[in-house]
Amino acid sequence: MTLPTTNNVGIPVASDNDSLTVGANGPILLQDHYLIEKNAQFNRERVPERVVHAKGGGAHGFLEVTEDVSQFTKAALFQPGVRTESLARFSSVAGENGSPDTWRDPRGFAVKFYTSEGNYDLVGNNTPVFFIRDPIKFPDFIHSQKRRADNHLRDHDIQWDFWTLRPESAHQVTWLMGDRGIPSNWREMDGFGSHTYLWENAGGEKFWVKYHFKTDQGIGYLPQADADRIAGEDSDYYIRDLFKNIKQGNHPSWTLYVQVMPYAEAADYRFNPFDLTKVWPKGDYPLIKVGRWVLDRNPANYFAEIEQAAFEPSNLVPGIGPSPDKMLQGRLFAYPDAHRYRIGANYTQLPVNAPKSPVNSYSRDGAMRYNNPGDPVYAPNSYGGPHASAEIASETASGYGVEDEVIRSAYKLHAEDDDFGQPGTLVRDVMDDAQRERLANNIIGHASNDVSRPVLERVFEYWRNVDKDLGDKVADAFRE
Ligand code: HEM
C-alpha cells in the first residue's frame, strides 16, 4: 500500500503536483499552507558547511580491543575484549562541500567512539604531523589555502608564500606533496591522532601516547595525472568508493596502535614530544597494538548522520586527557564552538552526536531542545541531583604539572628540534627513489601555477633546507 503524503505534522495533503489556484490558470492562494511549508522548508535545507573539512563522507562501525593495554589506561573503551560502536568521517581540508575528492590535500580522519563513559572523539588526519605548531596561526594558514579576497580563486602563490614564511610547515608539506597527498581512496590510507595525549591507568600512573590507525587494505595513492582526470570525471570518487565497498560487504578495517612514552621521559626527549610538527621515531617508541577498527554500516541518511556529525577533540573520557600541545589546546575550544554555530546549541541531542551512555547534565533549554532535565536545575542542591566527582572525570588525567610565567613564546627547543631535520629524514631515509621522484615532480607541478619569482626563490631555499638534492632539482626546473 502506498503511504499518503502528509505535511510536517502528519496531516494528509491533497496533491504532490498542483498548487491551490483560482481556476486552472489562476493565481496561487496564500491558503495553500502545504505549498508554503514545502518551499519554506526547502529554503532552510542547508546548514553552514564546515569552515574546513567541508567535503567528506563517512560510515558506522566498531572498535574491538584485541590486546591488553590496561597497564597504560583505565579508559573503559580500551580494556581487553571491549567492543565499542563508532562513527567515522573522512574529508579533505581546503575545498568546499562539493569540491573534487581527489584534489591534493591532507585527509581528515575523524572518529567517534560511543563508549560506556560518554563519547570519545579522535579527530585526526591521514598524516601524523601538521603545518603549524601554535593555534594563533590556524586562521592565517587556512586563509592561505582557501580562496583569495579579490578574485575568489585559490592561489598557489599565497600557499607557498605562507608555507615558506613558516618553516615549521616543511614536514607536513613533504607529506602533502608526496604520495600521501592524494590517497587512492579513504580505505587505503592510515589515520593518526597526530597530537600527543595523556593516558592514565587505574593506579594513577601517567603516559604520553600517540595513536596510529594502520589500514588493513594497504596504502594506496593516485599519481597526480590520474587524480586530475578523476577530479573531472567523478568529483565524489572517494564517497562512492567507501559507500560501494561497505554496501558490497567489503568492510574496511584498520589496526589501532599506540606509541607510549613514560610520563617522565617527555622533559628530556630529543624532540619536543608535544610539537605537532614532529613524529616520535618508532625506534624510540615502537607501535603497541590495541585492536581492530572496522567500518561495516553505511549511513541511511547522509545529512543526519554525516553532515550533522560533530566531532570534538575535547570529548575525552576518564583515563584520557589532553597534553600541553598548544595546537590541541586551541582545538579543545574550536570544535564545540564551531558546532554551536554550524548546527545549533543543542547539537549533542541529535542521534548521531548523542552518547549511548546516560547524560546527567545541568544544561537546559535553547533552540530545538527536546530532552530537558527536570528539577533540581542547579548544583549543588540538596534534592538528589547529580554531583560531579574529580575521581572519575577525565580531568584527573590532565594534571601534568605546570608552573611558569605567563608569556607569549615559541616552544623551548629540545636537543634535536629544528624544522627541517624530520622532513629531511622522511625524504632521504623513508622514501624510495620513485617516491622521491614523484615528490619532486609534485612540488614542481604545484609551484608552476602562477607563483611569483620572490616566492619561488624561497620555495627553492625551503626544499634545499629539507634536502639539498631535492631543492636543487626543484630550482633546476624553474631555471630561466
Ligand atoms: C574540522 C578547527 C587543527 C582535523 C575543523 C573545524 C574547525 C577546526 C573549526 C570544523 C568543525 C565543524 O564545523 O564540524 C581547527 C583548529 C585547529 C585545527 C582551530 C588548530 C588550532 C586540526 C588538526 C587536525 C584537524 C591538527 C588533525 C590532526 C580536523 C578534522 C576535521 C576538522 C578531521 C573534520 C571533522 C569532521 O569530519 O567533522 N577543524 N582545526 N584539525 N579538523 Fe580541525
From TrEMBL:
Domain Catalase core, residue spans: 6-387
Keyword vocabulary terms for this entry: Heme, Hydrogen peroxide, Iron, Metal-binding, Oxidoreductase, Peroxidase
Active site: H53, N125
Entries under InterPro entries matching the protein: Catalase, Catalase_3, Catalase_AS, Catalase_clade1/3, Catalase_core, Catalase_haem_BS, Catalase_immune_responsive, Catalase_sf
Annotated residues for binding of heme: Y335
A Pfam family annotated for this UniProt entry: Catalase-rel
Top-level taxon: Bacteria
Cofactor(s) required, per the database record: heme
Gene Ontology biological process: hydrogen peroxide catabolic process; response to hydrogen peroxide
Similarity section: Belongs to the catalase family.
Record-given protein name: Catalase
UniProt source species: Amycolatopsis japonica
Source organism phylogeny: Bacteria, Bacillati, Actinomycetota, Actinomycetes, Pseudonocardiales
